Amino acid sequence: MNKLQRGVFWNLFSRKDVELNYLLRRSFSISSHPVRDLASKDGELRVFIVAGEVSGDIIGSRFMDSLRKLSPFPVRFAGVGGYLMSKQGLNSLFPMEDISVMGIWELLPHLNNFRVKLKQTVQAALSFQPHVVLTVDSKGFSFRFLKYLRAKCIEQGIVSPKHFHYVSPSFWAWKGGEARIKGLSEFIDHVLCILPFEAEICKLNGIAATFVGHPTLEDMIELKGKEASGEIQGNGEEFRSEHGIASGSTVISLLPGSRVQEVTRMLPIFSNTMELLKDAFRELVTVVHIAPNQYVKDYISKAVCKWPVPVVMVSGGSPGMKYKSFRASRVALCTSGTVAVELQLARLPCVVAYRAHLLTEWVIRSKAKVPYISLPNILLKSATIPEALFQGCTPSKLASLVRELVHNEILREQQIAAAAKVIELLSPGKGLINNSTHLETSHAFPNSVSSMIAALTVLQS
């Protein structure tokens, strides 16, 4: 073996040695003890939780409430969240909206702020010394946070808490996406999945996962109690009476999104759509739903002052009022997102719209495997809900789709019938809470509650 060959050999050996050393350090640095044992030893369960958008704030707050009810130990939380998580006792490190950005081009102006917030969050987690770390959706921020936190624990030679991620990334929807799931095992120990097929995909790619059901189905429990069925029927007449809407008026619910970037892009399109529809229906009234995000609220409040038709604004922080307004509405026009599932619960026919930056749209068109963007259509594998996407999302196109859905009873009935199937697919198995023998509790919990199953999974890991 000459000098050059010896050099190549030792370089290869050293590289493999470093990789092996890293894997050994990583395996020893992750806690192998059950979460309950760690909490029992310390007399409390410490959970560091991070949510970066409105839907995550809802999921996080319900998880916090469920974990407290299920845990045999006092639970202490730290991390990042919104208004609803603060009501559960979380003192957020910074406003959740600081990391609430979706898209590719849309993210670039915020990169420096993201780095600052990321470093701040990692340091706070290390100081808190949690038994469990839970990130909720927002994979752009969440995955970087989990990856850096684990690397810091390995670097400092300290035991890493167990990492859970709630809401599996939709890698299955992208070309080559499933291969990316394998990489998650480096910094995620368990994924809490909200779609029925995701857990199996995760397991096939080497990462532990549990299907906990879709969090939006908890609206039924919150509004109707534990015996709730798969539909929420709000009091539409009461909503009309409270807001002075005549019985003969046509009411359209508009849901422009929860992020500022979404709303500023979609609301003008919705406004122009209503301009085209104002003479097509008798006494047209729009109900604009506002996400519990102060920036969004401020923008919408100013924008609707110039609208072509009467507007009723409904706060997204009031589920009861939201479902009453759905019942009073003939159809809904919404930006693609979680709200599509809420509309399935309300059995309200809808049209789904989506626009983004041109670069983001190009990536979606070139990389997406699935032909639909709304979850009901993806689950049903059919275009049951009309979608207007990208350059096709124009006021004239939306006005045409909305007009047809208002008048065509066959299309309306097809959506209403399909909604029951969507809700069935999103519901987890029965009895996962009440049949558990691992926890002793005096509470009687309803079946099929996502946050309870998620909390139970964390406690039993």
What's the SSE blueprint?
Layout: H1 3-29, H2 35-42, E1 45-51, H3 54-70, E2 75-80, H4 83-87, H5 111-128, E3 132-136, H6 139-156, E4 162-166, H7 177-184, E5 190-193, H8 198-204, E6 209-211, H9 218-224, H10 236-242, E7 250-255, H11 260-277, E8 284-290, H12 294-303, E9 311-315, H13 319-328, E10 331-335, H14 339-346, E11 350-354, H15 358-367, H16 375-380, E12 387-389, H17 395-407, H18 409-426, H19 450-459
Parallel strand pairs: 1-2, 1-3, 3-4, 4-5, 5-6, 7-8, 7-10, 8-9, 10-11, 11-12
Helix pairs in contact: 3-19, 5-6, 10-13, 11-12, 11-17
TL;DR?
This protein is of the alpha/beta class. It has helices at residues 3-29, 35-42, 54-70, 83-87, 111-128, 139-156, 177-184, 198-204, 218-224, 236-242, 260-277, 294-303, 319-328, 339-346, 358-367, 375-380, 395-407, 409-426, 450-459; strands spanning 45-51, 75-80, 132-136, 162-166, 190-193, 209-211, 250-255, 284-290, 311-315, 331-335, 350-354, 387-389. The chain has 19 helices and 12 strands.
Give Rg in angstroms: 24 Å
Q: How far is the first residue's CA from the last residue's CA?
A: 51 Å
Largest sheet: 6 strands, parallel
Taking all residues together, what is the mean pLDDT?
86
Strand order of the largest sheet: 2-1-3-4-5-6
- Sum up the overall morphology in one term: globular
Q: Pick out the low-confidence regions.
A: 1-28, 431-447
Strand content: 5-15%
Helix content: 40-55%
Number of E-state strands: 12
* Structure class: alpha/beta
User: Tally the helices: what do you get?
Assistant: 19
What is the quaternary state of this protein? single chain
